[in-house]
């Protein structure tokens, strides 16, 4: 049936809605029908003449209309796209009570809680208690409403942005020109174009955000007390999607008597950093042993201006293994280094997930004074290997194209340079209390100054690991 316009205008065609099944959907259809007949907002004063038609077509009752008129102010202020006026009452109160208890218990113990962890716990509880969780799916919208009902928010540290050079565009173009010239000249295979980056890690890999009640000024996060104890992970990958063995450098003077898992190369350094000797070891034990590396086919290695990458002995060793170096200009690693742009963050996120699981349910040891020890070195190696293996090859391939390193030379893949991927609101750079010894902005800073900056208040010179 057509809806007659009550001011004498031409009848309006019937909206294409069938009978609706609940009050919220009926209200949505009611707004559309009444609004098309009488104009915006007038639908709340619909006369009796059309209520019977609404009742037949949309299932709108007199009680619904009375409720809508009573809530006229709230309904008027609703966004146009919002169709449901939720009352804040949970559909599964017993389930939400247990989830809220879990969140409170974890936060009181200082453990990090994430949205995904809440949804996973809720699903597991729902499977174990089907009588109290009929048709529960732990959707994102349910999690959002759960936060609102229980006054929860995500808390995180502030992010310190990297300072970019003034002549940014000229430097990026110069780097891309060099890479293209080298590719045209030598015709590298994608498996022979690689990127390597050193990244510092802490024994306590505390995340930046946790679920917590609103308004709290102090956010407690439980750790083992080794936030200042660090080690270095050296990651490398190639443009065809291959991921090379991670190199892990622990702060020790001697190699620990542990059986390390297969899949990583372990090195020790008295400060836990990469240096010239470490670069040589990496070139010999990781880069030269990549798939196809033994035949020493001409290759291109992209890395930053870390001082150990630029020494004469490093350049000579690169020449001996038939590898050309493409050095990223200072300040541009966040734009043209694949590991920095696309891979380091998901890698560290996966590390933190494993550390959180270990903190909650992993096997731990304690000192005589009752203090928790940091994870064993072999456990840390397992964290690194699993996190690196979880990065899929397609992400690695796209990271090289995103940085303009492996794109088709005919220009058909240049659109990858301008594709903006959605980035989560999480910290990707060190905070103002941390210093990255591999930051390319420290290229011209004397090494002895960096050594002093990196010594923490509680650091022991004779530290031998845990």
From TrEMBL:
Organism field: Pleurodeles waltl (Iberian ribbed newt)
InterPro entries reported for this sequence: CenT-Element_Derived, DDE_SF_endonuclease_dom, Homeodomain-like_sf, HTH_CenpB_DNA-bd_dom
Protein name (database record): HTH CENPB-type domain-containing protein
Gene3D superfamilies linked to this entry: Homeodomain-like
Alphabetized UniProt keyword annotations: DNA-binding
Domain of life: Eukaryota
Domain HTH CENPB-type: 83-156
Organism ancestry: Eukaryota, Metazoa, Chordata, Craniata, Vertebrata
Pfam family, any one: DDE_1
GO cellular component terms, A-Z: nucleus
A single GO molecular function term of this UniProt record: DNA binding
PANTHER family per record: POGO TRANSPOSABLE ELEMENT WITH KRAB DOMAIN (PTHR19303:SF74), TRANSPOSON (PTHR19303)
């Amino acid at each position: 049936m057509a809806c007659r316009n009550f001011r004498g205008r031409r009848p309006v065609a019937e909206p294409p809605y069938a009978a609706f099944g609940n009050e919220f959907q009926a209200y949505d259809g009611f707004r559309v029908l009444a609004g098309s007949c009488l104009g915006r907002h007038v639908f709340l004063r619909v006369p009796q003449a059309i209520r019977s038609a609404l009742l037949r077509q949309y299932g709108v009752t007199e009680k619904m209309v009375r409720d809508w008129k009573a809530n006229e102010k709230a309904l008027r202020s609703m966004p146009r796209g919002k169709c449901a006026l939720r009352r804040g009452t949970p559909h599964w109160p017993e389930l939400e009570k247990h989830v809220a208890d879990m969140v409170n218990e974890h936060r009181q113990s200082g453990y990090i809680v994430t949205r995904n962890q809440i949804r996973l716990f809720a699903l597991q509880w729902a499977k174990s208690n089907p009588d109290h969780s009929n048709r529960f799916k732990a959707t994102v919208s349910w999690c959002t409403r759960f936060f609102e009902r229980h006054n929860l928010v995500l808390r995180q540290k502030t992010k310190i942005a990297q300072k970019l050079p003034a002549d940014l565009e000229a430097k990026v173009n110069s780097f891309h020109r060099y890479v293209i010239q080298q590719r045209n000249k030598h015709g590298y295979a994608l498996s022979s174009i690689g990127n390597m980056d050193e990244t510092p890690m802490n024994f306590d890999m505390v995340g930046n955000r946790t679920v917590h009640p609103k308004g709290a000024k102090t956010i407690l996060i439980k750790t083992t007390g080794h936030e200042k104890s660090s080690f270095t992970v050296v990651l490398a990958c190639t443009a065809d999607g291959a991921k090379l063995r991670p190199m892990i450098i622990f702060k020790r003077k001697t190699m620990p008597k542990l059986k390390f898992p297969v899949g990583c190369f372990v090195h020790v350094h008295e400060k836990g950093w990469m240096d010239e000797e470490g670069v040589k070891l990496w070139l010999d034990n990781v880069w030269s042993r990549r798939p196809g590396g033994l035949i020493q086919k001409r290759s291109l290695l992209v890395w930053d201006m870390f001082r150990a990458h630029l020494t004469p002995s490093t350049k000579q060793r690169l020449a001996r293994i038939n590898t050309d170096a493409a050095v990223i200009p200072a300040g541009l690693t966040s734009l043209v280094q694949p590991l920095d742009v696309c891979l380091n963050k998901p890698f560290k996120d996966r590390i933190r997930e494993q550390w959180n699981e270990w903190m909650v349910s992993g096997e731990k040891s304690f000192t005589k004074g009752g203090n928790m020890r940091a994870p064993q070195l072999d456990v840390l190696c397992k964290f690194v290997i699993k996190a690196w293996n979880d990065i899929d090859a397609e992400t690695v391939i796209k990271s090289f194209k995103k940085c303009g390193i492996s794109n088709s030379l005919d220009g058909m893949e240049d659109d990858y340079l301008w594709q903006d991927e959605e980035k989560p609101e999480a910290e990707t750079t060190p905070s103002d209390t941390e210093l990255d010894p591999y930051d390319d902005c420290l290229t011209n800073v004397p090494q002895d100054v960096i050594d002093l900056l990196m010594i923490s208040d509680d650091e022991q010179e004779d530290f031998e690991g845990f």
